[in-house]
Amino acid sequence: MESSLDERLERCSLAKDHHQEEEEEEEEDPNTKWLARLPQEIIVEVLLRLPVRSLSRFRCVSKPWRSLISSSKFMNSNLKKSNEHERDDNYSNRSLLLVSMVSLVINMHSCSLHSVIHDKSSVKLHEVEPPKRCFYPALYILGSCNGIFGILEGYHDTMLWNPTIKHLKKLPNSDTNYRRYKIFSYGFGYDELNDDYKVVEICCYARLGINRETIVNVYSLKSNSWRRIQDYEGGMISGSPGVFFNGVLHWLTTHRDGLKRVWSILSLEISSETHGTRLMLPQSENGFDPMLGVLKGRLCVFCNYYQQKMDVWMMNEYGNNESWSKFASIPYSLDIRGRILPLSVSKSGEILVRCGYSFMLYNKGDGSFSDTAVKMDDPTSLDEAVMYTESLVSPYLYDDARDQI
Fold first, then answer.
1. If you compute the radius of gyration of the chain from its CA atoms, what whole number of angstroms results?
2. 84: phi then psi, degrees, rounded to nearest 5
3. Please, are residues 249 and 267 in contact by the beta-carbon 8 Å criterion?
4. β pairing state of 260-269 and 274-275
5. Is 134 inside a domain boundary?
6. Are 328 and 347 in contact (CB under 8 A)?
7. According to the UniProt record, where is the region Disordered (predicted)?
8. Which of 235, 163, 236, 158 lies closest to 200 in space, CA to CA?
9. End-to-end CA distance of the chain, in Å?
């Protein structure tokens, strides 16, 4: 029923576009007359069941629909329903953004996470227009929250972008004297307490491998401004973007204890903008290169032993350093080229991993790998794969409110 309704609404949308271009229709379009007879609550309930991609097109069915779908109330209801699906392990609104580089030009595609995990024959790739047409490696993804991506352009220019509705907002600069600092790291997260989206900028001045000064700036989308918060004091911060989980941004840090290299996790609570308790990494073998991630609703550390294995550790009780447990140990086989990166876990327990330029499913029960049906024109061009939830949330959602202040 939903698919046939989706097709019918699509025909209405196309018909409406055609009439608007000709600008000759004075009478109500007969294709959309039946919509006006439906009660508003029924229309809302039906629209909330449709894919976000369809909703972004159906805004042009009529002015009332455009107003409804663009309203903050509908946007929040749609986002709530998407998050409910995610908690139920339903991947209907979860997608993968694939970033590739062909002849030094950035290309982007998206595909359904559900189809990647479950479809064995083919996975449909949708071309995505990059936020800016530029040469590699000018764009870096900082993370995604509620369908909005934090993007770093070049070294210090930041943007917020929703690829589903094609809204892009360039952020003001933080007025940092970048010449003074040598190491930079960023993070992006959603402040649920204040209903705000924030970008964090960390600038580190180091000398002889020792952190001499590290400042932290926070951008608020609601105020459209940056402010400096309490400086960070500790080890050297990884240049990788912070991982957002449980309302907190996390970065790997390292310091020397004699000849030994000690890793830990720096945390920044996004609502209060305060540094949290330092988290320690799980006790494991030496000689690994760690990464942070999130699987099954838990903070994870991926310990990579070069061309040997990737150990996946989960923090079962957030904030408790004693609650780390090893979820899986993924071996490097002869068929795997490039670094293993776990992305998601299916209902059956299979781990979706990116292996260099390809995607595979790892069954930790029998230790086997199976191919997915993701096929790219040039598979060796794949540079990044990021999961996100499709949404109607716009990086301009607070602009009207600020104008009224």
1. 23
2. -65, -40
3. yes
4. antiparallel
5. no
6. no
7. 1-31
8. 158
9. 45
Kind and range of the H or E run holding 343: strand 340-345
Angle at 82 (CA atoms; ends 78, 83), nearest 5 degrees: 120
DSSP SS3 for 298: strand
- Looking at the whole model, is its pTM more than 0.70? yes
C-alpha span between 297 and 349 (Å, rounded)? 14
Query: Does a structural domain hold residue 64?
Result: yes
Do the domain assignments include residue 235? no
310 is a domain residue:
no
Per-run averaged pLDDT (10 residues), the chain, 405 residues: 50 46 46 66 79 77 78 80 63 83 82 88 88 70 94 89 93 88 90 95 77 87 95 82 96 80 91 92 84 95 90 96 95 80 92 88 92 78 87 85 46
Q: Under 8 Å CB-to-CB from 219, ≥6 apart: which residues? A: 158, 171, 172, 174, 198, 199, 200, 201, 225, 226
| Coil/strand/helix, residue 322 | helix
Structure tokens at 208: 């002889």
In terms of residue numbers, what domain contains 56? 2-70
